[in-house]
Write a structure and sequence with these properties.
Layout: H1 26-38, H2 41-53, H3 61-69, E1 72-74, H4 77-81, E2 89-93, H5 99-109, E3 116-119, E4 134-135, H6 143-161, E5 165-168, H7 193-201, E6 205-210, H8 216-224, H9 226-231, H10 233-238, E7 244-249, H11 263-276
Parallel strand pairs: 1-7, 2-5, 2-6, 3-4, 3-5
Antiparallel strand pairs: 6-7
Length: 302
């Protein structure tokens, strides 16, 4: 059974802090919001609201998010130091968790350079202070998706041509097991959209590999119903509170090593390079612990 894919749907509605949209049928909206409400969304929403009310001067949104989620990140610091600090650059990564991947990779790249954009359609759009770093991308075959993609593609290309950094999750959605009971989740096919941007800018590429995957419940739900899959994304973030995320950063790949490849070959090459970085890292589902502090509305969180 082919896993269902969240990018067949519009982006989450930020004003509702939910993966349900106003365009969804009423029953679907009610189901998604009901499951979200029972599986961590209220706590995460309060975390964000408290962040807005009690920001720490000089702390980035990315650092604040990881601090409040009590997530620690283990990575090869020497490789981060080798990422070019200027000039056009594309960073590609696998996408095991969802929104957390975007937060973590932005947190790391922000240490090196601030001129980065992330191609994403995740609930990160809720945060006004980081919208300048985000470009929406939708892989659905609809007129609305086409319009969104053309605009984002144009902005992404222009950003690279001006010497900026672009972060891409080429699969477009969270990793999923090939079958409901398969042991390991993996990305779906990496889209050639990324290859077109790399070729147009003729820029180097840095691969990044995230170790781990979402829960077994998420994997099973992904094979049953897109509605169930969408309703569990907040749960997956909530369940990773207090966890440790392992990742590896690869060496920059000069464009001259990619120039002779067609788009399909280019994406397959980059995918293999990315997954090769995972050798020796844990690949099971990542789960943290319950929050130290179970927040109530209007409480100030640590």
């Amino acid at each position: 059974m082919r896993p269902l894919h969240e990018n067949a749907m519009p982006p989450p509605e930020p004003e509702n802090f939910s993966y349900a949209t106003n365009e969804d049928p009423k029953l679907k909206r009610l189901l998604i919001r009901a499951i979200e409400g029972m599986t961590g969304q209220p706590y995460l929403k309060r975390l964000y609201e408290d962040h807005q009310a009690h920001r720490i001067q000089g702390e980035s949104f990315w650092a604040a998010a990881l601090r409040r989620l009590e997530v620690s990140v283990r990575y090869n610091q020497e490789a981060l130091a080798h990422i070019p600090q200027s000039g056009a650059l594309v960073i590609v990564a696998n996408h095991p968790f969802g929104v957390l991947d975007g937060v973590i990779i932005s947190y790391l790249i922000d240490k090196v350079r601030q001129d980065f954009l992330v191609l994403t359609n995740a609930v990160l759009y809720q945060a006004d202070e980081i919208k300048a770093h985000l470009l929406p991308i939708d892989f659905a075959e609809t007129k609305e998706a086409l319009s969104t993609n053309l605009k984002s593609r144009s902005e992404a290309k222009e950003h690279l041509l001006q010497g900026g950094c672009l972060i891409i999750f080429p699969a477009g959605g969270a990793s999923t097991t090939p079958k409901p009971w398969s042991r390991y989740a993996t990305d779906l096919e990496w889209k050639n959209f990324s290859a077109r941007l790399i070729v147009s800018a003729k820029c180097p590429v840095v691969p990044v590999f995230f170790a781990g995957q979402n829960s077994r419940l998420f994997q099973i739900a992904s094979h049953i119903s897109l509605t169930l899959r969408l309703s569990l994304f907040f749960k997956e973030v909530y369940d990773k509170i207090g966890s440790e995320i392992n990742l590896r950063i690869g060496n920059p790949i000069p464009y001259k090593e990619l120039a002779s490849l067609d788009r399909n070959e280019l994406m397959e090459f980059l995918r293999k390079k990315t997954y090769a970085l995972g050798a020796g890292l844990p690949h099971g589902s990542v789960r943290g612990r319950r929050p130290r502090y179970l927040a109530k509305k209007n409480d100030v969180m640590p």
